């Protein structure tokens, strides 16, 4: 038993050292034979016989189970590897010689062999090598694949997208951790380019982040969920997951939530589909990268329409869409629940717009896809473009040949030719696989412009093809520039075509003609300046004459205006006097009337005084009688006598007062009489003055009317004179400006004359530079000429 263990251990060491030669196996067989011989000697009584039997048995077993199968395996593997290596060598030599059409075609197939576990492991090693060779051949053929003859590409750069996601992952993990990559299709160009870009950035900037595995979902939701769940149940749980397909992130996020690892496993994905954005808003998906799918549908169609109608071409054949990193912190700027992707006014403004209507009906076919929600906004963009272009005499059709299944090149390729037969004038599509390129080129060769969006393969051959076309365009432009520069420069150098003596004479004649023209312009400007000076002198004399006339007209107008104002002032004064005299007349009348009433009242007072006088007289008589009676009476009559005396005294005072009041009233009556006469006389005088003032007012009114009429006649003269003066002034100002312009023209022509000489000298330098540029273009064309881009024959 120990001998078998020793043999087994030696066999393992021999395998580890690739020690599978016949000699090595023979030595192992001898050891095994000796061991069996010892046992056989004990059984058969002869050690030599046992060794011989053991040797023969072991040699048979080893030859049958190990040596022959191993020789067959090694022989097949060597033949396969040598054959494939030779194919690679031939292709690389062809490529090194500049033939970019070189292709690697491997004949090797996986080895189907069943043997011992050790031989099976060796078989698996050979198959791994064969698989790697086929992968390398695929990459080589991608590099030299046929360039696509599309008009332009509009979309994201998948490789740069992958690098952007690698940077996001590196920062999210702090530069350290383990990552699993989940793809939709390993064969799909955009998915594979994203993976390569992602891994290349991690290798360059974050070497401590390791790729644990690369898994393919075939763009199936349940597969993506199952694979992610299995990854999360492994012994080593990844720190991050990169989902390169826009339909994967939501399913991977659901598996992370179910595993209770939200926030612990960083998930980075692509696109803004609703399911993905819901997990972004919850923070389960750390970040997703937008590529503006609406523009990929809308702008591609509009640009293709403009190309058909106007021949428009972009300045660069690859138009990149904007990449936005969307996270939980900023997702509201790009997406809204229930509404989807937000189309802001700024984004709407940058959308492509049709340049002009088509003179004839146009039909454009967009070959789309619908196997995931990512294509919904692409389709929406195409349909929006269709609505816009219908007003420009064009119709756009969204066509999906595979339905809701992934693209099939065997279906999609021939379908393109059917679209041409159906009368479509242009086609837009994505390129999921480089095998579709030959079909596109056949359609383009029939004169149907093709535009691509979302994804297309890149190849060294395509790059060199573009470089070659650019070199030819550069050569054409530089030749034209050199010829133009030499045509204007006046140098005697050799032009691109050889001797340029005739060109130099032509240039010299052009320069002479230009100089002569400048001199003639300068002479004409001098003559115009002299004429302008004469015009300025005449205009000044006219302005002075007009000012003189205006001065006299203004004097007349001023005098008329003064007379009118004076007459108006006199009329106003007389009218005021008449009003005042009228008021005085009215006041005198009122006063006379009042005095007459006072005269009447004074007469009534006289009558009353007369009555009082009579009363005093009668009182005095009564007092006298009373005195007489009292004189003849008794003692009692003495009191009566006293009363009679008092009455008599009172009567005398009343009589005296009455006489005095009477005298005053008489005087007042005389005064009232005199005042009444004066008032009547004044009233008559006021009336006469009022009549005279009215006559004066009428005369002044007539004078005012005459002055106003004269003033009205002078106003048009003043206005007309002012208009003429303004016109002459404007003419003078215009002439002054013309003189200034003429002076500037004279200065400019002198500068042009000077500049012409300088231009001639500088154009010589430009000519020399243009010649150098043409030489560079020739060298570039020569450098690209060594590469064979199109297949010969």
Number of strands: 14
Taking pLDDT < 50 over at least 5 consecutive residues as the criterion, the unreliable ranges are 1-8, 10-22, 491-499
Strand content: 5-15%
Termini Cα gap: 71 Å
Indicate the overall shape: elongated
Largest sheet: 6 strands, parallel
Task: Give the domain tally.
Answer: 3
How many helices in DSSP terms? 17
Class inferred from helices and paired strands: alpha/beta
Instruction: Spell out the CATH superfamily of the largest domain.
Output: Response regulator
Placed side by side, the strands forming the largest sheet appear as: 7-1-14-13-11-12
- Percent helix, as a range, is 55-70%
Can you characterise this structure?
The protein contains 17 helices and 14 strands. It has 793 residues and is of the alpha/beta class. It folds into three domains: 2-142, no CATH class; 148-458, Rossmann fold (3-Layer(aba) Sandwich); 502-784, Orthogonal Bundle (Helix Hairpins), CATH 1.10.287. The two termini are 71 Å apart.
Quickly list its features.
793 residues, alpha/beta, Rossmann fold, Helix Hairpins, 14 strands, 69% helix
Condensed summary:
By secondary structure, the protein is α/β, with parallel strands linked by helices.
What is the strand and helix layout of this fold?
Elements: H1 2-16, H2 22-44, H3 47-96, H4 117-143, E1 152-155, H5 158-172, E2 177-183, H6 189-205, E3 209-216, H7 221-232, E4 240-243, H8 249-258, E5 266-270, H9 274-282, E6 287-290, H10 293-310, E7 318-320, E8 324-326, E9 335-336, E10 340-341, H11 345-349, E11 362-367, H12 375-389, E12 394-399, H13 409-421, E13 426-429, H14 437-445, E14 450-453, H15 460-489, H16 501-631, H17 637-785
Parallel strand pairs: 1-7, 1-14, 2-3, 2-4, 4-5, 5-6, 11-12, 11-13, 13-14
Antiparallel strand pairs: 6-8, 9-10
Helix pairs in contact: 1-2, 2-3, 3-4, 5-6, 7-8, 8-9, 10-12, 13-14, 15-16, 15-17, 16-17
């Amino acid at each position: 038993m120990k001998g078998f263990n020793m043999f087994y251990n030696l066999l393992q060491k021999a395998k580890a050292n690739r020690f599978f030669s016949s000699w090595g196996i023979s030595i192992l067989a001898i050891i095994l034979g000796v061991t069996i011989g010892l046992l056989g000697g004990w059984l058969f009584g002869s050690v030599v016989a046992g060794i011989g039997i053991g040797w023969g048995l072991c040699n048979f077993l080893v030859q049958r189970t190990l040596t022959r199968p191993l020789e067959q395996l090694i022989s097949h593997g060597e033949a396969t590897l040598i054959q494939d290596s030779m194919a690679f060598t031939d292709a690389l030599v062809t490529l090194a010689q500049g033939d970019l059409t070189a292709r690697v075609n491997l004949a090797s197939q996986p080895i189907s062999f069943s043997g011992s576990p050790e031989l099976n492991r060796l078989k698996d090693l050979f198959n791994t090598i064969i698989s790697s060779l086929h992968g390398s051949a695929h990459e080589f053929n991608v590099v030299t694949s046929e360039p696509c003859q599309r008009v332009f590409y509009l979309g994201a750069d998948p490789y740069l997208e992958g690098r952007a996601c690698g940077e996001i992952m590196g920062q999210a993990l702090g530069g350290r951790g383990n990552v699993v990559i989940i793809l939709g299709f390993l064969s799909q160009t955009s998915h594979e380019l994203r993976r390569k870009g992602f891994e290349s950035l991690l290798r360059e900037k974050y070497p401590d982040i390791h790729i644990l595995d690369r898994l393919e979902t075939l763009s199936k939701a349940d597969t993506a969920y199952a694979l992610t769940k299995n990854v999360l149940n492994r012994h080593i749980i990844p720190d991050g997951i990169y989902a390169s397909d826009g339909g994967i992130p939501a399913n991977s996020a659901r598996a992370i939530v179910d595993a209770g690892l939200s926030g612990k496993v960083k998930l980075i994905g692509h696109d803004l589909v609703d399911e993905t954005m819901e997990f972004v808003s919850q923070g389960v998906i750390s970040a997703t990268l937008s590529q503006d799918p609406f523009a990929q549908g809308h702008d591609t169609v509009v640009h293709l329409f403009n190309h058909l109608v106007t021949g428009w071409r972009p300045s660069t054949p690859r138009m990149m869409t904007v990449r936005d990193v969307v996270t939980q912190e900023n997702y509201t700027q790009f997406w809204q629940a229930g509404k989807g992707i937000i189309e802001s006014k700024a984004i709407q403004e940058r959308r492509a717009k049709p340049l002009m209507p088509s003179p004839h009906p146009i039909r454009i076919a967009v070959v789309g896809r619908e196997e995931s929600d990512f294509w919904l906004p692409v389709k929406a963009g195409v349909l929006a473009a269709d609505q816009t272009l219908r007003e420009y005499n064009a119709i756009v059709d969204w066509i999906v040949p595979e339905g809701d299944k992934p693209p099939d090149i065997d279906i999609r390729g021939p379908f393109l030719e059917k679209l041409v037969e159906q009368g479509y004038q242009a086609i837009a599509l994505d390129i999921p696989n480089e095998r579709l390129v030959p079909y596109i080129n056949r359609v383009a060769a029939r004169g149907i412009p093709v535009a691509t969006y979302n994804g297309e393969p890149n190849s060294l051959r395509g790059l060199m093809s573009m470089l070659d076309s650019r070199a030819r365009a550069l050569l054409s432009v530089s030749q034209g520039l050199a010829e133009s520069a030499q045509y204007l420069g006046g140098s005697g150098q050799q032009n691109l075509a050889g001797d340029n003596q005739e060109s130099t004479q032509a240039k010299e004649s052009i320069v002479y003609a230009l100089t002569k023209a400048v001199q003639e312009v300068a002479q004409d400007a001098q003559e115009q300046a002299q004429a302008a000076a004469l015009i300025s002198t005449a205009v000044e004399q006219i302005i002075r004459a007009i000012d003189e006339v205006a001065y006299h007209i203004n004097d007349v107008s001023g005098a008329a205006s003064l007379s009118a104002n004076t007459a108006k002032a006199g009329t106003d004064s007389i009218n005021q006097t008449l009003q005042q005299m009228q008021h005085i007349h009215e006041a005198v009348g009122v006063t006379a009337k009042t005095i007459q009433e006072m005269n009447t009242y004074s007469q009534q007072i006289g009558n009353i005084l007369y009555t009082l006088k009579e009363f005093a007289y009668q009182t005095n008589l009564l007092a006298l009688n009373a005195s007489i009676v009292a004189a003849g009476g008794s003692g009692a009559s003495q009191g009566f006598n006293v009363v009679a005396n008092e009455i008599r005294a009172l009567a005398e005072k009343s009589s005296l007062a009455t006489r005095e009041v009477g005298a005053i009233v008489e005087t007042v009556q005389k005064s009232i009489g005199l005042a009444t006469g004066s008032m009547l006389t004044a009233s008559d005088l006021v009336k006469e003055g009022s009549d005279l003032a009215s006559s004066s007012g009428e005369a002044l009114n007539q004078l005012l009317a005459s002055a106003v009429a004269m003033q009205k006649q002078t106003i048009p003269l003043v206005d007309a004179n002012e208009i003429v003066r303004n016109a002459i002034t404007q003419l003078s100002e215009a002439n002054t400006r013309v003189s200034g312009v003429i002076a500037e023209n004279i200065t400019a022509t002198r500068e042009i004359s000077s500049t012409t000489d300088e231009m001639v000298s500088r154009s010589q330098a430009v000519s020399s530079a243009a010649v150098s540029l043409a030489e560079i273009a020739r060298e570039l064309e020569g450098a690209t000429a060594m590469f064979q881009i199109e297949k010969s024959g």
